[in-house]
Amino acid sequence: MTRNDLITIYHCYIDCLNRQDWNALGEFVHDDVRYNGAQVGLAGYRSMLEGDFRAIPDLHFRIELLIGDPPRVASRLRFDCTPVGALFDLPVNGKRVQFEENVFYEFAGARIERVWSIIDKAAIARQL
Q1: Nearest alpha-carbon partner for 95 in 108, 86, 103
Q2: Which of 74, 63, 127 is nearest to 100 (CA)?
Q3: Is 0.85 surpassed by the pTM of this model?
Q4: How far apart are the first and last CA of the chain?
C-alpha cells in the first residue's frame, strides 16, 4: 500500500466516524483491533466510539496533523465540543472544551489493526 492510499483510507475512516456510520466501521477497522495494548476487537472498538458520541453529542473528529509511513499513520486530532457530563473523570458537565488527541495507527492491509491514543486531559482541566 502506498502512502497516498493509506492517507486516503484514513480520511475515509475519519469521515465514517463523523457520520457515525457504525455498519461501515469494519471496512476500516480490523476484527481483532487492539487499543492502547488491549485486545478490544471490532465490537469493543465500536462500543467505545458509540459511548464517546453518547457522552459528547456534538463530537467531531478534525484532522490537524497527519503523517503516513506505511503501514502506520500518526495523527493529531482536534476537538471542539460540549460533553454532557464527566469527560475522562473531569466534571465538564455541558461546558464547551477544546482539546487534542495524538493517535498512532498500524494497518494490516487496508484496515486498522492497532491504535495508540494519548488525549490531552490537562488541556480540558485548564478550561474548567
Answers
A1: 86
A2: 63
A3: yes
A4: 43
